[in-house]
Amino acid sequence: MVSTSLMVDTSSHPRAQLHRCVERSAYRQLTALEESLKVKLLERHTSGCTLTSAGETLVAAAERAESEFLKVGASIGGASEAITGTVRVGAPDGLGNYFLADRLGTLAARHPGLVIQLVPLPRTFSLSRREADIAITLDRPKQGRLILSKLTDYTLSVYAAESYLSRVGLIRNQSDLAGQLFVTHVEDFVYSNALDYASTLGRLMSRRYECGSVVAQMEAVRSGHGVGILHDYAARRYPELKRLLPGVQFVRSYWLTSHPDTHETRRVQEVHRFIAASVKGARASFESN
After folding, report:
1. Residue 266 DSSP SS3
2. Which DSSP state fits 39?
3. Which of these, 270, 250, 251, lies nearest to 113 by C-alpha position?
4. SS3 content of the chain, % helix, strand, coil (to 5)
5. What count of other Cβ atoms lies within 10 Å of the Cβ of residue 268?
6. What are phi and psi of 246, to 5 degrees?
7. Which of 18, 64, 65, 252 makes a 20 to 30 Å CA pair with 172?
């Protein structure tokens, strides 16, 4: 889940402030706050700090206060013509790097007062913890207070570069994959069940080159190092990539989520609508040929 703030970005979020204070060893402010409240807010350990039950209660109250502030700010700011402020978008690295980076740049250029923070990383984002204002997920969220809509289905297929095929020969069927170098993900970094497609072909190729991001996998395959399962909408950018095994294809989905506390702000609504419209307008590119 994901969400930043209306007049308050993630740097001012109470939980983020507490953790940042700890990380920077700013114990004096925390100690002063604890003395003022006459209660212990943090448990200090050699490996770091954790919130006590009193600390959790304080943070929860601060989050409720922030939510009310955001709602009031949204209603007050609605009369303004200009769209200003910061919107953070958390996205899977495939969609973020090969689709949103270009599109959201257009939106940022259109609104001089709007700052868009695109965070395209192979991870999940928590809206409730204010890690982002808008999050795109690979799995449909099953819990939490969220504004949720399906963005699109997309396909992945098996690819290799022309330079690789010129060295190893044509790959016409799955049996030809034996002995090939499989460019795939690092299992420890898998954060969604939607990423399980690699296991299908992994049984056929014992040699592996594992990369921690979609971009790294794409570049390794493009450079002619091996065979990989790539996003079709991204692979179409590169004519040197050749789709193999037409009968092997994987279908997955993207889900667009935002948090009720910030969804009604003009800047979040504008970015949310823009993402949905951009994907809808390019729907054909997310499906295989």
Report:
1. helix
2. S
3. 270
4. 45, 25, 30
5. 28
6. -55, -25
7. 252
The three-point CA angle 7-122-199 to 5° equals 155
Best CA proximity match to 172, nearest among 114, 226, 104, 245: 245
As a whole number of angstroms, the distance between CA 1 and CA 132 comes to 8
What is d(CA 190, CA 97) in angstroms, rounded to the nearest whole number?
Answer: 18
Count of alpha carbons within 13 angstroms of residue 100, beta-carbon side: 27
- Model pLDDT for residues 212-247, shown as the tens digit of each residue: 999 999 999 999 999 999 999 999 999 999 999 999
* Encoded amino acid at 54, one letter: A
Helix (H) or strand (E) holding 60: helix 53-77
Record the tokens describing residue 108, joined without a space: 């940022």
- 85-91 vs 134-137, strand pairing mode: parallel
Q: Which residue has the tokens 């303004």?
A: 80
DSSP 126: -
Q: Is the pLDDT of residue 68 over 90?
A: no
Cβ atoms of residues 207 and 182 within 8 Å: yes
- Give the H or E element holding residue 209: strand 207-211
3-state secondary structure of 158: strand
How big is the chain, counted in residues?
289
Supply 212's token pair: 């921690």
Q: To the nearest whole number, what is the mean pLDDT of the chain? A: 83
Could you tell me which of 267, 276, 280 has the C-alpha nearest to residue 108?
Answer: 267
Q: Provide the pairing of β-strand 241-258 with 147-161.
A: antiparallel
